[in-house]
Amino acid sequence: MPDPLPEPAQRTLSTMAFSAGYRLGLILDPDGTIRSVNEVSGIGHFASEALVGKFVGDAAAGGVRGAPRRQVWRDRVAAAHTSQEPARYWDLRPDALDGSAAVILTTVTPVLLSDGTLQAILVAVQDRSEVVELERTAFEQRELLNSALQVTGMGSFAYYVREQRFECDDRYREIFGAPPAVAERGSGALMERIHEDDRSRVLQEFQSALVGSEGVSYQQEYRIWAERPSGPQLRRIATVARVEVDAQGPRRILGVVDDVTERRREEELRIRMQKREALGTLAGGMAHDFNNVISAILSNASVASAEVKAGVDPSTSIDEISRGAKRAGDLVRRMLDFSRDREPERRAFSLAAVANDACSLLQPTLPRGSSLTFDASEDLPDLLGDASQIHQVVVNLVSNAAQAFNHGPAGTIGVSVDALAITPRKAGVPTDLGPGTYVRLRVTDDGRGIAEHELPRIFDPFFTTKVRGEGTGLGLAAAQSIVRSHGGQITVDSIVGTGTTVTVLLPTSSEVEQPKDQAPQVPRGQSAAPGPTAAPRVLFVDDEPSLASLAARALPHHGLVVTAFTEPTQALQALTDDPTAFDVLVTDLAMPVLTGFELVVRLRALRPDLPVVLTSGFLTDESHAEAERLGIDRVVPKPCPVDALARAVLAVTRSS
Predict the structure, then answer these.
(1) 238 forms bridges with which residues in the sheet?
(2) SS3 for 488?
(3) Sequence-separated (6 or more) residues with CB below 8 Å from residue 64
(4) Is 46 helix (H, G, I), strand (E, B) or coil?
(5) For residue 532, what is the enclosing H or E element?
(6) Are strands 371-376 and 412-422 parallel, antiparallel or unpaired?
(7) pLDDT tens string 561-611
(8) Closest CA to 519 of 646, 629, 421, 420
(9) Distance separating alpha carbons of residues 641 and 598, to the nearest angstrom
(10) CA-wise closest residue to 372 among 381, 361, 383, 382
(11) N or C: which end of the chain has fewer CB within 10 A?
(12) For 577, what's the count of Cα atoms within 13 Å in the CB-facing half-sphere?
């Protein structure tokens, strides 16, 4: 009978045999003979008494590939004689109960006496098939994830909330330009690399994610200072992360990071190119519209001159010149609004009135012998939108129709406005317009028409059927853009040799806003009470000589005494010589030597109570804010009628 094992070794065997996962325990003599068996699950397919006394290589259940089983166990027993530490061996067992190959983990532990003599050998056998399969699946998933991250160029990280431990991969460190020593210091060290303007926001979003529920995901984009061989570089980083939560709260944050610097640069470049293209289209469209307006102004000025010479009242032509100038001012305003990304004004207006005004403006510009007729139904509903933009549409359409007669016989242009009720099944109506009431504008001509193959491109920017020098190809493109922005649609029907009809459908609005008062408003807390009997004395400053001359000639007709200067320094000297010589300052903003703001500051040092009216052709939100800070009483945008400027001057002088 073999000597019993020392008590510590017996306890170790019992713990191994009955602990979770262990299914068979063997005690071997130093020569490898099985002394005793503690079987848990019958993994060996032998009764315990059938194993005792056998050499372990003859009785072991584990199959070994590539070498005889007895030799394998001789080597393992020999290794136990020379080692003081447990040895772990992996075996394949082809005769598992379900017929599939099983993975067996065998642990061989030498039991030594105090003098180092080998007393026995403990063998613990564990079936690890399921665990190995899970580990293999997890390994494959990790490999797949790593491959995906390598393809995308992303880095990964994990933050263990309770341990406050941060882990990241090599790509993460590469993106941040952080050596391992920095990354090992944790997220705090990496947080220091975030741009100071973004750091507080990133930290706040991170902390907000931690108080969320299970599965909270969040995205961040921020700038970092990444170390590169050439020195620190400002890079833009995108982070996508997910918070894992258990019963105790947030457990871990897993995420990926990506360097999106080049991508954002490409996007910004594309946006700049799109804006440049849009500005080019706008500039071309503005030139197209200005040509129409200027042509109308020059034509009416010629007619007015002829009427004066003939002793005929030129007031009608002068009114048309005035309307043309206002339209030019609207064009400038729209261009400035575009540059500031402002929404166009939405007010109630009559399409019939706008179309009639455009026809009156363009009547003198028609080719000799051509005629223009206008017809509008009564009691048409108002539209809600930008009347100046719709006026531009009518001008473009009528001008295009007139150009159809440039190289042929004179003809007739017809402009009509009526109402149209659209139902879902109404024939001949575009299907993408919803049912409702629309106001319809039609511009027809009996000119040469447009070829059928050219009609699909008729709204393309810069496409034109006209000869070189007669058109930019932007009139219809701009018209279509405006009509669509008002929720409407524009279509063209044409037959070569017969003529062309352009139809515009614009939806009416059930919520009609009242037009805003165009007159300058009285400052808050003041009233436009009747003023003194003496005419206000105006110090007028504008570096444009024609405007200074116009103010000196026109403002006196409104009861004002004007002293005009084109040099701000001259105006400053005039008030320095006599600080009480003027009752109000009217100054342009953009001037050489001294800007309007600088002039106001210097003049207010001499006359703190001097009212100021500021005029400018380019007013930004910043200039409005500066005007308010300086206490400027009124801001009047250019171009503005003389009577509007006079009303502003009278309002501030009476208020003061």
Answers:
(1) 221, 258
(2) coil
(3) 72, 91, 92
(4) coil
(5) none
(6) parallel
(7) 999 999 999 999 999 999 999 999 999 998 888 899 999 999 999 999 999
(8) 646
(9) 26
(10) 361
(11) N
(12) 7
CA 604/CA 387 separation, integer angstroms: 40
CA 407 to chain CA centroid, Å, is 48
In degrees, rounded to 5, the angle at the alpha carbon of residue 618 between the alpha carbons of residues 345 and 285 is: 65
- List, for residues 535-558, the tens digit of each pLDDT value: 899 999 998 888 888 888 888 988
Single-letter residue type at 114: S
Q: What separation, in Å, do the N-terminal and C-terminal C-alpha atoms of the chain show?
A: 124
What pLDDT was estimated at residue 474? Answer: 59
% helix / strand / coil in the chain, to the nearest 5?
40, 25, 35
DSSP notation for 536-551: PEEEEE-S-HHHHHHH
The predicted structure's pLDDT at residue 65: 47
- DSSP-assigned letters across all residues of 563-627: EEES-HHHHHHHHHH-TTS-SEEEEESS-SSS-HHHHHHHHHHH-TT--EEEEES---HHHHHHH
pTM for the model: 0.37
In sequence order, the 6+-apart residues with CB closer than 8 A to the CB of 577 are none
pLDDT at position 150 is 61
Query: What share of the chain has pLDDT > 70, as a percent?
Result: 71
In contact, 26 and 123? CB cutoff 8 Å: yes
Rounded distance, CA 120 to CA 3, Å?
A: 10
Q: Decide if 585 contacts 612 (C-beta within 8 A).
A: yes
Q: What number of CA atoms fall less than 13 Å from residue 384's CA on the CB side?
A: 10
Phi/psi at 487 (5° precision): 80, 20
Look up tokens 């002793």; give the residue: 311
Q: Residues 153-178: pLDDT tens digits?
A: 788 888 888 888 888 888 888 888 76
Of 53, 474, 17, give the one whose Cα is nearest residue 283.
474
Cα distance between residue 312 and residue 5, in whole Å: 136
Given a contact cutoff of 8 angstroms between Cβ atoms, the answer to whether 383 and 506 are in contact is yes
Give the number of other Cβ atoms within 10 Å of residue 582's Cβ. 23
Give residue-wise pLDDT tens across range 294-322: 777 877 788 888 888 888 888 888 888 88
Q: How far is CA 4 from CA 32, 53, 92, 120, 227, in A?
A: 16, 15, 32, 10, 67
Residues 6+ positions from 46 with CB-CB distance below 8 Å: 59, 61
Q: Has residue 653 got a pLDDT over 50? A: yes
Confidence of residue 149 (pLDDT cuts 50, 70, 90): low
Q: Which amino acid is at 467?
A: V
What pLDDT score was predicted for residue 462?
Answer: 54
Question: pLDDT tens, 35-82?
Answer: 888 755 444 444 566 778 888 887 654 444 445 778 888 999 999 998
The tokens for 640 are: 């503005």
487: left (phi over 0), alpha (psi -120 to 50) or beta: left
Using alpha carbons, select from 392, 410, 401 the residue that is nearest to residue 444: 401
Confidence of residue 396 (pLDDT cuts 50, 70, 90): confident
Note the helical H segments in 310-379: 315-339, 351-362
Average pLDDT, the chain: 76
592, 563, 615, 545: which is closest to 329 by C-alpha?
615
pLDDT category, 508, cuts 50, 70, 90? confident
Which tokens hold the place of 220?
């961040």
Contact 402, 362 (CB under 8 A): yes
Helix (H, G, I), strand (E, B) or coil at 38: strand
Residues 115, 595: Cα–Cα separation, whole Å:
102
